[in-house]
Structure prediction request, 219 residues.
Amino acid sequence: PGAMSQAVAKEMPQEEGEGGSRRSSWGLLVTAGVGGTLVALYAVATPFVAPALRKVCLPFVPATAAQIQNVLKMLENRSGSLVDIGSGDGRIVIAAAKKGFRAVGYELNPWLVWYSRYRAWRDGVHQNTKFYISDLWKVSFSHYANVIVFGVPQMMPQLEKKLEDELECNARIIACRFPFPCWIPDHTTGEGIDTVWAYDLKRSRGCETKSLEITPETE
Prediction:
């Protein structure tokens, strides 16, 4: 019996050591798997949340369902071409296309543009939508009657001037989340981050048609 006890005592540390080694190996595998998954998620997500504009750091922030509905409300009784400046994943452009608009989105982030095109195809509105990879400061919006902006406060003053210089009097500009600094909105809807402001350039410019006063000529 004494010999057997000594033999068991000699074998036990070895078995425990083998078990600990197996547990350590499993731990390394789990750690490696979790680490690899996080790296993959970071690699996929980073292009989507990276800044989409060069002059202003504007990360991708998806429009909420309430914001989209508020935008569509501001587009009621409107027609003509439509553009979304900084279109992100294309959800506003697609929603407008479903309402009958021929809608265009400009976005600097190529991953978001490709994803927008896929979503438009998936939702069956790819024929009424277009998405371009472009810097908004290098694009003229002069031929659009409806302009949607999802910007940040730092870019709004300069964008306000750009749009006022380029757009026709019949244009309507719809700002999401942040208003323009100088223009007075003609319509407002929503609350908090879902607030939407609509601006009609014909009023801000004084473009209303005025009747001419005809005075009789005097001799």
The first strand starts at residue 82 and ends at 85. Residues 2-49 form the longest helix (48 residues). Residues 22 and 28 are 10 Å apart (CA to CA).
